[in-house]
Amino acid sequence: MLRFEYHNLLHNPSLPTAIPAAKVKDWHLACQQAHEEIVADRKADILGFYSLPEQDISHITDFVARLDPIFDTMVVLGIGGSALGNKALYSALRTERELPRKLFVYDNVDPVYLHEILAQIDLDRTIFNVITKSGTTAETMAGYMILADLIKTKYPRDYKKRLIITTDREKGFLRQVISQEGYTSFVVPDNVGGRFSVLTDVGLVSSAFTGMDIGALLRGAASMRERCGEQDIFANPAYLNGLLHFLYIREGRNISVMMPYSNSLYDLADWYRQLWAESLGKRHDLKGREVLVGQTPVKALGTTDQHSQVQLYTEGPHDKVFTFLSVESFAHDFVIPDLHPDRQEVSYLGGRKLSELLNAERLATEIALTKSGRPNANIAFPVIDEFHLGEFIMMYEIQTVFAGKLLHINPLDQPGVEAGKIATYALMGKAGFDKERAEIRQYLEKKRS
């Protein structure tokens, strides 16, 4: 199972300014209240991600089993929660497990990016997966309209088997398209928000297509959910990490750096960034008071960013909390040949594995940060596989909701994102947004003056 090494988030001889363990215990009642609110939300079917480990996945495995074997590539059309989880899982396992099929995720409306994807794929062997609950997401729908037109034109007889849609169970524009065209469809659940949806059809369809064991993903999630049911907060990794980050936010450490020491886990930090930023970054609390809370998530890559960011991290402002992601056993490794045994500059590397060097560098960065009084933790993956990825996802989803409860904000909404969507609709000429278009014209006139 994942190991959460939190010693350097707490007061110790090397970190005298860190959070004292006694302070964690002082927050017992607040943690108990947050836990009871989560229990109540689960009973009200608000936090649907808790129940995902028990879901029936036979509709996904049956679909993949029936799929025309000509298809060896999937392109996901989605953005935010409809994209980042897909990318994170595929990036983590594509070389670790030597996945038999390829995945591309088109999650930006950059036209050059779409051109690059189309240049890399064989259209004959590609299936497209459109993911949007509302069916109105401008970025996703633009991609859908371009690519649906492309495949309808090129494959007029069998285009229906080349596109699938993942959307709301009953309503929305895409449900009408599904009924009219007969596309295969999957469901975005009502009680699971987009950034919490990686363990639903949103993330599981593409994962199963590429060859992942999605049952193991769910078993890992179930295992972590059980660990996170512990009332002893020091035995509950999600609650403990959520509380400690909350306490550091109160002390002005408003940046959370996630630093995987594995290229395979780099996109997992991207998934975390959306989850943490969109859930906790709120202007108002539950009583409507302006609080302007949140912790800015930043990603870094070990060892690459030791040479670009760690100078700032060790000697810059005391405004950050650090989380390393480490891997104990890699699927592939290399032994460094002892090419220059007579030269002390490099002979120490001879005969050592690359993985040894990578993990030594991680520990060295931990030591350097700790000496500089910077709180840090490590989440250790025994190996990168579906089970441990499922553990990580469930831990962070629970941790995020728990931290939101401590902050007295709604971790499930995203009003700031909605404002940007409305402005985009107005700029692109969507009907019903005349008032917003007039406001934008006024804004542009003031900007020019």
Task: Offer a quick outline of the entry.
This protein has 16 helices and twelve strands. It is α/β, with parallel strands linked by helices.
How would you portray this structure in words?
The structure is a single chain. The chain has 449 residues and is α/β, with parallel strands linked by helices. It folds into two domains: 3-41 and 218-407, Glucose-6-phosphate isomerase like protein, domain 1 (Rossmann fold), CATH 3.40.50.10490; 48-212, Rossmann fold. The protein has helices spanning 21-26, 28-43, 58-66, 84-93, 111-120, 138-154, 173-181, 201-210, 214-227, 237-250, 266-280, 310-315, 354-371, 386-407, 415-427, 434-448; strands spanning 3-5, 73-77, 102-106, 126-131, 163-168, 184-188, 255-260, 282-284, 290-293, 296-299, 320-327, 376-381. The strands form three sheets. The chain has a five-stranded mixed β-sheet with strand order 1-12-11-7-10, with helices on both faces. Helix 2 (28-43) crosses helix 14. The radius of gyration is 23 Å and the shape is globular. It starts with a strand and ends with a helix. The mean pLDDT is 96.
CATH architecture of the largest domain: 3-Layer(aba) Sandwich
Q: Mind telling me the CATH superfamily name of the largest domain?
A: Glucose-6-phosphate isomerase like protein, domain 1
The main sheet comes to: 5 strands, mixed
Uncertain residue ranges: none
The gyration radius over C-alpha positions equals 23 Å
- Beta-strand residue fraction: 5-15%
Number of helical segments with 4 or more residues: 16
- Within the largest sheet, what's the order of strands? 1-12-11-7-10
**Oligomeric form of this entry?**
single chain
What CATH calls the topology of the largest domain is: Rossmann fold
How many β-strand stretches?
12
What class do helices, strands and sheet pairing give?
alpha/beta
Q: Bin the helical content.
A: 40-55%
Can you give the mean pLDDT?
A: 96
Using the alpha-carbon principal axes, give the shape: globular
Tell me the series of helices and strands, N- to C-terminal. Answer: EHHHEHEHEHEHEHHHEHEEEHEHEHHH
Note the gap between the termini.
60 Å
Q: What is the C-level CATH assignment of the largest domain?
A: Alpha Beta
